[in-house]
Amino acid sequence: MALGPYASFIVTSYVAATLVVMILIAWIVVDYRSQTRRLRELDESGIARRSGRSATELS
Fold first, then answer.
1. What span, in angstroms and rounded, lies between the C-alpha atoms of 44 and 54?
2. Per residue in 8-56, pLDDT tens?
3. Residue 3 and residue 17: Cα distance in Å, rounded?
């Protein structure tokens, strides 16, 4: 595969873009777990959601 004189720039760009996407995916996963845990804690403590329905009424 001949990328010419700009091969290092092209490869570095692809690696950087892949790294950024992987970091964003990891951030989303960590945030989702944190939000889910927080909602579970609020439900267990008796705080009702805005709709006024508790988690037991929804299921």
1. 10
2. 999 999 999 999 999 999 999 999 999 999 999 988 888 766 665 555 6
3. 18
- Euclidean distance between CA atoms 1 and 12, whole angstroms: 16
Return d(Cα 46, Cα 36) in angstroms, integer: 16
For residue 27 the two structure tokens come to 């951030």
pTM: 0.66
Please, where are the H alpha helices in 1-59? 7-45, 55-58
Question: Which residues are within 8 A (CB) of 3 and not within 5 positions of it... i.e. 6 or more apart?
Answer: 10, 11
